[in-house]
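Format notes (please read before filing issues)

Several people have asked whether sequences and structure tokens are stored in separate files. They are not. Every record keeps both together, in the order shown below: the sequence lines, then the token lines. Line labels are part of the format and must not be stripped during preprocessing.
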Amino acid sequence: MCRCGDMDKKEELIKVAGEVKKCRKCDLWRGAIQSVPGEGSFDAQVVFVGEAPGFHEDQRGIPFCGAAGKLLDKLLALAQLERGDVFITNVLKHRPSGNRDPLPSEIEACRSFLDRQIEIIEPKIIVTLGRFSMAKFLPNALISQVHGQPRFVEFGGKEWIVIPMYHPAAALRNGKIMVAEQEDFIKLGEFLEKINGGGEVKVEKEKEKEEQLKLI
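Then the structure lines:
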């Protein structure tokens, strides 16, 4: 785990971004205009992990800057957060052609970058946006069943609080998902407030849940 001071965290994240820019571990860089390593606070309490850059992200090198990004900004406000308060990134750091789904080999190629970003920042909460980012931490879960529910997940030798949520793009396409997404972000704000205030929070351990499922 990274035990960095604030300036060290910033420098380490810049270093990761530089490595992402030069990365040739898969072929996505060939069709991309820019790498999209992520942006936000190096001392964020919440890290948001999406799936992959889209057209606008590829053009600007900034995560979630298109229509889904505008919605994300509004959702963050429901949680009493702003972009400058959090860190936003994706499982993939280059855009897949035609905005197709990420391939397993591409996710694996980018894995170390995301892992290091999380370890450097050491957030209190990791919010996954969409099923591909959720699968990194909760590979057997269905997003329709677990969205908005905090889980303790072991990752990199440490327990993290992971909250899976729908991707904002899915909310733009489906009114029911939009309502669920808004409710989940409101709950996120309340959950974070309780953590910071020393209040009691209930978080289920994913391992315990898996063991319970085995007995059914």
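For reference, the curators noted about this record: Residues 208-216 have pLDDT under 50 and may be disordered. Residues 175-196 form the longest helix (22 residues).
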